[in-house]
Amino acid sequence: MKCESRNLTNGECVQIVVLHEGWRYRRLRERFGISHTSVSRMMERYKETGNHSRRPGQGRRRVTKPVQDRFLRLRILRQRYVTTRSLQSKLEDVHNVRISCRTVRQRLKEGNLFLTSLVNGWDKRFLDLYQGILAVSAATTPFFEKI
Description:
The chain is an all-alpha fold. The chain folds into two domains: 10-49; 62-142. The protein is 61% helix and 0% strand. It has helices at residues 10-19, 25-32, 36-49, 66-78, 84-95, 101-110, 122-140, 143-146. The N and C termini lie far apart (81 Å). The model has no long low-confidence stretch (mean pLDDT 79). InterPro entries: Homeodomain-like_sf, WH-like_DNA-bd_sf. It is found in: Nucleus. Its main location: nucleus. This is Transposase.
């Protein structure tokens, strides 16, 4: 039988603990489609802790600390037209932490923030030009004459 690599659900863990009394690891492996070492590890964890759930803290550790995540969120709120590259380099300069641009985007996404995209700066140049035209026309022509 082919064993698949996956995490057991809580229900499966409870079933393994209950069925373990009369069943061998090999039979449990065949029943749930997992390796016998997975069954063995789960039973060891149950004997050690008295609990069938996964241990906390499993998985990859984060590269950035909450202070550095906050730094990225504040920087994007203060400068809306900043790039991930500039955020990455600023974080490295200030906090001496090297992260990828993808990590910068993920940290911003966790805070429900997204980068405002500019296509080669054309949007900002157009906005500056438009505001300049409005300022000139407002200075030369009274508001009521425009209507």
